[in-house]
Amino acid sequence: MKLSNVKEILPTLENVEFQLENGTFVPEHFHITEVGQITKNFIDCGGVIRTEKVVNFQLWNANDYQHRLKPAKLLHIIKLSEDQLAIEDAEIEVEYQNETIGKYDLEFNGKNFVLKNKTTACLAQDACGVSPEKQKIKLSNLAVNNSCTPGGGCC
């Protein structure tokens, strides 16, 4: 989800709620302690130089159980970040601590923002010798080739 999507959604919400992919909610007294842009410059295992940019939201829980971040306040923080830091309209990555700091993609399910688990991947599989996974198909779904029939002389 891009930053522009979040900015469109926020005015339609009464509360800002984040939910993990497994259905667990981030405690409602969370803070967004950072909004920024992260640029990652790296070389993949195939020797290709790459650059990735994401907008970063960092969620944090404190012991101030009465705290609630309202949509207008988050929108204000985002606009301030855009003005002061020249943040681009990029995909959002959310940092949230469970056992350790996790990084999540962001989606919206119509009511809540959902923290989607991220996974690693090889960006240069051809250079690593990693074969792409073979597509699994059911034999019953294969098209029947009628060119070889009993008595047709093809066997």
What does this structure look like?
- The chain is of the alpha/beta class and 155 residues long.
- The chain is built from three helices and six strands, in the order αβββαβββα.
- The protein has one domain (3-119).
- It has helices at residues 3-9, 71-85, 125-128; strands at 18-20, 30-43, 49-61, 92-97, 101-108, 113-117.
- It has a six-stranded mixed beta sheet, with helices on one face.
- The termini are far apart.
List keywords for this structure.
single chain; 155 residues; alpha/beta; six-stranded mixed β-sheet; 3 helices; 17% helix; DUF6428; DUF6428 family protein
Number of helices: 3
Total strands: 6
How big a fraction of the residues is strand? 25-35%
What Rg, in angstroms, do the CA atoms define? 23 Å
Q: What form results from the Cα inertia axes? A: elongated
Unreliable stretches (pLDDT < 50, length at least 5) are: none
Tell me the structural class: alpha/beta
Query: Element order, helices and strands?
Result: HEEEHEEEH
Binned, the helix content reads: 10-25%
Largest sheet: 6 strands, mixed
Distance between the termini: 55 Å
What count of domains describes the coordinates? 1
Average residue-wise pLDDT: 89
Please state how the strands of the largest beta sheet are arranged side by side: 1-6-5-4-3-2
Short description:
With 155 residues, the chain is α/β, with parallel strands linked by helices.
